[in-house]
Fold this protein.
Amino acid sequence: METKTKQVEKYSQVSLIKTLDDHMKNGTIIVPDGYNFIAAINSAMYLLSEATDRNGKPALEVCTAKSINYSLTKMVLLGLNPMQKQGYFIVYGNELQFMPSYFGDRAMAERTGITDIVARVVYDTDEFSCEFVDGYPVIKHIFGVKEKIVKEASFITHAYCLFTLPNGRRAGDVMTFAQILKSWAHSKDPNRKSQNDSPEEMAKRTVTRRALKPYINSFVGDDVITDKTEDEQVIVLEQDSEEIQEPETSSEVENKEPEAVKQETEAKKQNFKNTEIPF
């Protein structure tokens, strides 16, 4: 007796592209100026076509079509492109998720009118002080002026990020290295390879994401922001793993967002939240 092998149907993005295009023509979905959503979806599909789950099965065959549609639509609504490392995909059992990356957060922040984003790390040999005036940080940082009594390698004590708001006000945030390590503890990689290899750069990324978070939230909403920093564009998690936990990100400036920023981004935020996912 001949046994028939069930053919696994691979996901195709053609229908989603047409649906999104129709919504854009009708004005029910608005993407950032200059954003090529078809190129972004095709880039995502290229990355996903090479991805497999823990069992070596193709991600596009394992993940449900609904979760793939949702992830790609979320990417489009945020105006991000994974080929530019602005976001990454997570294969979680048979579900696919999309999360903005550090570079994606910067891109979204810049769309709100934020400019001059600068991040620095502070070493034990630096002179450093920070005070918050009306919720905004005022930082004094002089590099390498303290003399070490014991000759040993310098270590990071703080990291900070500063940027200019649309109203011209300088804003930002500061984290101690202990707070940064606590954030890194949520990494999917128990060995924290990226953090161990480049602690300075990863510390700057961590504080930058926390500093920008309240302003990006005003633009796109809380549900799409994360403090994780990943270098891979497709991440595979065990099906029975715990759900992704967002690190604690309480910030002295989170609840002191200028009224001007709120008013400027409220319309964009409302458009995003009211957009019906087209599937």
